[in-house]
Fold each of these.
Amino acid sequence: MKVRVGKEGLFAFASDEHQVNAPITSGSFDEDRKSVELTVDATKMQVLDPPSRRDKVQANMLGPQVLDVEKYPTISFHSTGVIEAASPTEGSAPKIWTIKGDLMLHGQTHQITVSTERLDANRFTGSAPVKQTAFGITPIRVAAGAVRVRDEVDITFDIILK
C-alpha cells in the first residue's frame, strides 16, 4: 500500500508532498462472506522522499507527533460490508466494489469507505481517503501554518492474493 500526503498553505509551493510505503504484514479475503482484513506494521512504514529530506520526515511520521508507533504499532482494517457493482458481463465476477469497514489507526477506530476494482480472480486495486484528525492526529504545520500537511491523506493499494 502507498500513502500520499499532500501539502497546503501560503508557501506550500516551497514544500514537498510525501509518498509513504505501508507494507501489508497480514491479511485475509473471504469471497463467500465478503470479508476483508488487513494489518500494517506501522513501524515498518517508509517515507519515499529524496534522501536529503527522508530521515526527518520519517522521524516525524513515526514519532509522537503523528503515528506514535511506540504506543500504536499496528494499523488494521476489517470490512463490515461490501457493495458490489453490476458485473461487466453476465456471469462474471463483479469488478467494482465499495467496501465499508473499520480502520484502527492511532488507537482509534472509525468507519471508512474503500473503492476497489477487481482486476482478476487474485488481484485488487483501490483507494480510500483518510482524515488524520478523525483519528486524533494533528497534521504537521511549519512556519506558523504557512506550510502544512493536508488533513486528508490518500491510501492506494495493489494487492495480489496468495
Amino acid sequence: MHLQAEAKKIHTSIKSDNSIFISADKDMISLVLRNLVSNAIKFTPEAGTVSVGVALQDRFVEIYVEDSGLGIDEDTLEKLNQNNYYSTKGTASESGTGLGLMLCREFLTKNGGQLFIESKPGKGSTFSFILPAAA
C-alpha cells in the first residue's frame, strides 16, 4: 500500500511493542488488513496519517488501523455495522466495490474474530479487530 499512500503524501506508521502471535488463516487476515489500510488511505486527505498497530489484550490480540481522514457520520456508521453493501468515493475520487468490509467481517468471523469501527466526522476513524492469541 506504500505507492497508494505516497501518491497522496500520507504518512504511515506501525505501532507495536513486541512480537505478538495469533492463531488465524494468514491469507484471510492479510486480506482484512490490506482492505482496512486501503480504505484508510482512500478516505484520508493528502498529507494525512494512517497508523497500524497491534496490542495483546488477555487472550486476544487487537489489530487496528487508525487514520486522520474524513470520519464517518452516525447514519453511515450504522449502515456499515449492519454489514450492508455500501460504497462511496474517496478523498481523491477513488472508487471501490463496497464489498470489502463485508468480506473482512466474514473472514474475521471464520477466524474467531470481530470487527469494530469508531469514528467522528472530521476527526478520522479507527477500524480494529480482535483475534484469539496463539496459545
